[in-house]
Design brief:
By secondary structure, the protein is α/β, with parallel strands linked by helices. Helices cover 26% and strands 23% of the residues. It is globular, with a radius of gyration of 29 Å. 45% of the residues are buried. Pfam families: ABC_tran (PF00005), oligo_HPY (PF08352).
Length: 690
């Protein structure tokens, strides 16, 4: 069947062009030969259908649904959704005609010089699962009810102002906004009296500790407040002319589709676990080549092979990059980035920040960057807003807020930053003289360890991905070894093999020493906690072998929570009711409630604000000194690696390329790759006012 609009395929530049919300009564029809029949009974697309001949001429097209209630040939049964290639046109005048070259039932050519005549009105093609959409706007104006204009040919999708917004005004306006939620049966105020504007082309940094309300403000802007928490709001949150807390869901969905992009803190809860990465990105791009280009832009190595894997087969950093690629694919007017760099190494963090800059500079995109790292915010933000206990305590130009803070809370955030220049605390020194104990076997020994993964590629045999390639390491008892490297370099896979969660393809791993064996603190706290159990039940599971009474178990749980800075009432909450930083602390409490022999930390502070990160690092330090634990600490933060590690191992593409004392590796790196990592560390340039 010939395309009625030749040359239009792919004209949207791989961008999403989906249909606005419609009443459920309308059913779309498919393209039939040279004619199109719109949905029958759709109040938005009423039409007068005329049948020139009630007889059924040989070779004519199938009857359409609506006149004789027959299903369109090829249309899905029982589905009222738009299918790939469906075209919607209001007020069509439809006439039947023969299919060219068709034969009658007797084998003779179909008779009758009938033609199919169509009166074209504004419409659009629904985007299906198997290809990009094609918009068919009327000449000289965009399709009705949409804030998009499509360039013909291979150009990119441009955008007009969404109805209700002003082209030169702010893209988002928050006025006297307050929010309260019900948690554990108690209503508490999360945000109070927020007044904020995000200008077009502006990058606004929102900083604050975990639990200060940053993520709730982001969800308010996206119109995605959790309904089960019974949100009560005051004031307004207007994005592109629509109040995202009080407008109908259809309007909010249209704004999310046309004007908003989101990069969430926990990518595992945002990606569909049942869909391959290529299909999820393809929902936006509609083209594998464009998807591969986006993945390469955000720093994904072996991008073509990554299209065929599921989210759980990627590291946390790679999942975060996939989220970033999906968010920026549609070139939204506002990107809400909720802690987008927490799971990323410093080089990819720099790439993501540069990508956000390009969106602002090249396309006029606004960015709300939510972070607890003032160094990251200082690199990209035009303005900074500091949130403390649900209230904005300081708003101003980024340079002024960072270098001359006016509020005491802002000064405390700056003082708590972990930097490469801060003095190394004596408590980080070796607690034992393991260097002299040559007869003591190492707590962990890795001999020529290699790990390969088979990456499927549809019906093809696929390729082999080498995650760890011939690693040899000895970790003495009581030592803390920090492992650094980019996402995908094999750090997490190495830890999972030591923990027994993965088996090496070749080589051997040997553990020595008494105790509870290896315990792991996972990078992705959200996916490592059972969502239907309370925190008290999760921690209590680790104590079952000690046969404690209910009262004693509760006391141990409360003590473990207190050690990581969480109040006792958290024991009655479920993981979904906690912020990302609080979930990460729960993961650490679960690993240390029974003292382990080897503590395996996979980015344990990546989701924590700086003050809480210091608390957690101090906890790990004290546990190590008190219990004589061996610690293997994986991180992408070189400042944390310097503080936590007696030695630092630098991994690149599955191999250890540099190994040495922490101070020596930081001060005098031998490898160019190590120097690249050090150069990408975000630092605040300039003197900070005291």
């Amino acid at each position: 069947m010939a395309d009625p609009h030749p040359g239009d395929a792919g004209s949207a530049g791989g961008q999403r062009l989906s249909l606005p919300a419609r009443p459920a009564a309308g059913r779309p029809a498919r393209l039939v030969a040279d004619g199109v029949d719109p949905p029958a009974g759709d109040p938005v697309q009423r039409r007068d259908q005329r049948l020139v001949d009630d007889d059924r001429p040989a070779g004519r097209t199938a009857r359409v649904r609506g006149h004789d209630r027959r299903r369109v040939r090829g249309a899905p049964r029982g589905s009222r959704r738009a299918a790939p290639g469906d075209e919607h046109r209001p007020a069509l005048v439809h006439q039947w005609g023969p299919v060219p070259g068709a034969r009658g039932r007797s084998g003779a050519a179909a008779a009758g010089p009938r033609r199919v005549g169509l009166v074209h009105h504004p419409g659009r093609v629904a985007r299906g699962r198997h290809g990009p959409a094609r918009a068919v706007p009327a000449a000289g104006r965009p399709a009705a009810g949409r804030g998009r204009v499509v360039k013909r040919g291979r150009g990119a999708v441009g955008k007009t102002a969404t109805p209700g917004s002003t082209p030169d005004g702010p893209v988002a306006v928050v006025r006297d906004y307050s929010l309260s939620l019900v948690r554990n049966g108690v209503r508490s105020e999360v945000l109070h009296g927020i007044d904020l504007e995000i200008g077009r082309g502006e990058v606004l940094g929102l900083v604050g500790q975990s639990g200060s309300g940053k993520s709730m403000l982001a969800l308010s802007l996206l119109g995605l407040l959790p309904a089960d928490s019974q949100p009560q709001t005051g004031g307004s949150v207007v994005v592109a002319g629509v109040d995202m807390v009080s407008a109908p869901e259809s309007q909010r969905r249209a704004v999310r589709r046309d004007s908003l992009g989101a990069i969430f803190q926990d990518p595992m809860t945002s990606l569909n676990p049942t869909m391959r990465i290529g299909r999820q990105i393809g929902e936006v791009t509609g083209d594998d080549a464009v998807s591969i280009g986006l993945l390469q832009t955000v720093g994904v190595r072996d991008a073509p092979a990554r299209l065929t894997v599921f989210p759980h087969e990627l590291s946390g950093g790679l999942r975060q990059r996939v989220m970033a690629a999906i968010a920026v694919a549609g070139r939204p007017a506002l990107v809400v980035a909720d802690e987008p760099t927490t799971a990323l190494d410093v080089t990819v963090q720099a790439q993501l920040l540069e990508l956000l800059r390009e969106l602002r500079d090249d396309f006029g995109c606004s960015v709300l960057l939510i972070t607890h790292d003032l160094g990251v915010a200082d690199q990209i933000a035009d303005r900074l807003a500091v949130l403390h206990h649900g209230e904005l305590v300081e708003v101003g130009p980024a340079a002024a807020v960072v270098r001359d803070p006016q509020h005491e809370y802002t000064r405390s955030l700056l003082a708590a930053r972990l930097t490469l220049r801060m003095p190394r605390d004596d408590r980080f020194d070796r607690a034992t003289d393991a260097d002299d104990a040559t007869d003591t076997p190492p707590a962990v020994r890795l001999t020529s360890v290699r790990k390969e993964f088979r990456v499927r590629a549809g019906r093809r045999r696929g390729t082999t991905l080498i995650a760890v390639d011939g690693v040899d390491l000895d970790i003495p008892p009581g030592e803390s070894l920090a492992v650094v490297g980019e996402s995908g370099s094999g750090k997490s896979t190495l830890l999972r093999m030591i923990a027994g969660l993965e088996q090496p393809t070749a080589g051997s791993i040997t553990l020595h020493g008494p105790g509870g064996g290896p315990q792991m603190v996972f990078q992705d706290a959200g996916s490592s906690l059972t969502p239907w159990l309370t925190i008290g039940e999760l921690l209590g599971e680790r104590l079952r072998g000690e046969h404690l009474s209910r009262t004693a178990t509760r006391e141990r749980v409360v003590a473990a929570l207190g050690a990581v800075g969480l109040p006792p009432e958290v024991a009655d909450a479920r993981p979904g009711e906690l912020s990302g930083g609080q979930r990460q602390r729960v993961g650490l409490a679960r690993a240390t409630i029974v003292p382990p022999t080897v503590l395996l930390c996979d980015e344990p502070t990546s989701a924590l604000d700086t003050s809480m990160a210091r608390t957690v690092l101090a906890l790990i330090r004290d546990l190590r000194a008190r219990l004589g634990m061996t610690v293997l600490f994986v991180t992408h933060d070189l400042a944390v690696a310097r503080l936590m590690g007696d030695r630092i191992a630098v991994m690149q593409q599955g191999r250890v390329v540099e190994l040495g004392p922490a101070e020596q590796v930081i001060a005098e790196p031998r490898e160019e790759y190590t120097r690249t990592l050090l150069a990408a560390v975000p630092e605040i340039v300039g003197e900070v006012a005291s």
